[in-house]
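can u pls check wat happens w/ magnesium ion
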Amino acid sequence: MHDSKPHVSLSEVRILLWDIDGTLMRSTVQGGYKQYFSATMQKVFGNAGRFDEIIPSGMTDTQIMFEALRGEGFTPEHIFERKDELLQVFQAEMKAVSAENGEPYETLKGVREILAETDENPDFINALLTGNLSVAAEIKLETVGLWDYFADAPNAFGEISHNRSDLAVEAGKLFNARYEFDFKPAQFIVIGDTPNDIICARAFGAKVVAVKTGRGQSAESLAELTPDYLLEDLSDTKKVLEILQTL
Ligand SMILES: [Mg+2]
């Protein structure tokens, strides 16, 4: 939001890479994404494959499509070949479903306060590291009034790769390019709710704070991967900010 705010030196700054679903916000309607996802796949690929059987949490949007369609002979390349059309149709389908169902999202506890605080604080830069397609991320965050925090950031979205671990590495490259600086992976803190968030942070060498606010994640599956911190939620904003400041 405040790209022009003064930062501590770039070698000291902490970059917060936020996951969206289950971390910043969540859908209040379980399975609410199914309608626009499957309509998009039908329109772009002529087929939704085994989409109904997929448990998508922690997966990128393009990975969900690939997993659903691989039995039909699709490769990730087939998905990415249609990227422009995919983004366009996905956006239209999401908007149509929102218009029909209202705005079925809620911001998770503590998130607004932490974003407001870190946005003003020169020690931090906020960005997204999400499996969501950019169009989906914008619609969701716009709905709950959080998009402005990320609109100008070098965000890593689901159309970059179907593999979430690539996204963290890509986030590093995007930051280096934007700031013309060679950030150390340890300056990045991934904040997410699934085992895949932890795995992708580690693949890059970033730190990671896991939160238990996602649906369908067992606390054990997160703990097993030994994130730097595992929090119930982000509601104790003072403690969360202290963690982000000292990690
Ligand atoms: Mg998530």
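The mean pLDDT is 93.
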